[in-house]
Amino acid sequence: xxxxxxxxxxxxxxxxxxxxxxxxxxxxxxTEEIVGAYLLGPLLYLQLxxxxxxxxxxxxxxxxxxxxxxxx
Length: 72
Hints:
- The protein is mainly α.
- It has helices at residues 2-22, 32-48, 56-70.
- Helix 1 (2-22) packs across helix 2 and helix 2 packs antiparallel against helix 3 (56-70).
- The longest helix is centred in the first third of the chain and has 21 residues, at 2-22.
- The termini are far apart.
């Protein structure tokens, strides 16, 4: 069950990242696990551990940080 839920939550994001790596826009060394940790992890932390609703600003900041770390 854990694997199934993980795959369901990461798959749409991973699909977008794969296209970006093929276009040489993102680091080709990215894995699905790294993408999940750096894109989904911070948002899940805010929701689950801080108990707050994730907003558009949170998403934008997380994506910006990810791109800053992994964009070519």
